[in-house]
Write a structure and sequence with these properties.
Elements (H helix, E strand, L loop, with lengths): L3 E6 L5 E7 L1 H11 L3 H21 L5 E8 L6 E6 L3 E6 L16 H5 L2 E8 L6 E6 L6 H11 L4 E9 L5 E11 L5 H12 L4 H6 L4 H9 L4 E7 L1 E2 L5 H9 L3 H11 L2 E4 L6 E4 L1 H7 L3
Parallel strand pairs: 5-11
Antiparallel strand pairs: 1-2, 1-10, 2-9, 3-4, 3-6, 4-5, 6-7, 8-9, 12-13
């Protein structure tokens, strides 16, 4: 498997770590939506973080949606991740390419701006649960960590990386999510954070061939235990049938305007840019003439 996620636990069983390589996942999204570098980096990091969060918190048939509602030029970011680690997402403004920041890197923070970070979990209950915190960084990783710490009371550290080539294609992408379990001591947490601080930049590590397993050992020790290894992928489950159901919810007046003025309808999926065309006759059938 090219893209995959692992779950690991340290020898004390007080730290849980998820690491992921996600180059193909982010590249598929970038190509299908023709994303430019700032939009690629912001949406890519959100895709990776959402996948890690889904793996950490969802059980079978559940899904979550992450919304990064910033006032920066990339606009709102929406990502949906399922318990089977299939993920999809989009950004409002795909063609954003800003000058590099003072470190010479993609200025994700400026692209995202300030606003709100939301996570909605659909766990099969009557009403989905939504947690919301302010965007504290705009770099995405810190915002996932802040959400987990403040909204879910799980002390966490998150690292997310997307390296974008000059032609906007994705070279490498991946990350990690570290969670302190109730028995974790302050000393254990401090020692682990020091190891994270000593890591090379994630993009450099992945370009040098570091695997999720190797990253886990660097963070929580060579004696950590790998619990699971699962494939991840960018997958859009849109279909003409699904869009037909959406059109069928429109008012009779709206459907009539589509038929008489537009002589049909064409809908484009935000997640994969696939187009679905509906003829006048198909719209009449949905109008239940």
């Amino acid at each position: 498997m090219n893209d995959y996620l692992i779950k690991a636990i340290d020898k004390t069983k007080n730290l849980r770590l998820l690491t992921i390589t996600a180059t193909d996942m982010v590249a598929t999204c970038q190509e299908s939506q023709d994303l430019w570098r700032n939009s690629t980096a912001a949406l890519g990091r959100t895709l990776i973080g959402s996948t890690l969060l889904a793996a950490a918190s969802l059980v079978e048939h559940e899904e979550l949606t992450v919304r990064v509602l910033g006032d920066g030029p990339v606009g709102p970011i929406v990502v949906t991740a399922k318990s089977n680690l299939q993920v999809k997402g989009y950004v409002k403004n795909p063609h954003i390419a800003l000058p590099a920041n003072d470190k010479g890197h993609i200025d994700v923070k400026k692209g995202v701006g300030k606003g709100w970070f939301e996570v909605t979990k659909d766990m099969g209950l009557k009403e989905p649960y939504t947690g919301q915190v302010p965007i504290v960084s705009g770099e995405i990783a810190e915002d996932f960590a802040y959400y987990l710490t403040k909204s879910e009371q799980i002390p966490s550290a998150v690292g997310l990386s997307v390296f974008v080539n000059p032609n906007n294609t994705v070279r490498v992408a991946g990350g990690f999510m570290l969670q302190a379990l109730p028995g974790a001591s302050d000393q254990l947490i401090d020692e682990t954070i020091k190891r994270i601080d000593q890591l090379p930049p994630l993009s450099t590590a992945f370009m040098d061939g570091m695997t999720p397993e190797e990253l886990a050992k660097r963070i929580i020790g060579d004696d950590c235990k790998i619990l699971e290894k699962d494939p991840v992928e960018y997958h859009c489950d849109c279909s003409k049938e699904k869009y037909a159901k959406i059109i069928a919810t429109l008012s009779r007046k709206q459907l009539t305007e589509m038929i008489e003025k537009d002589h049909g309808a064409e809908l484009t999926c935000s997640f994969c840019k696939k187009k679905y065309h509906f003829t006048e006759d198909e719209l009449k059938a949905l109008r239940k003439d």
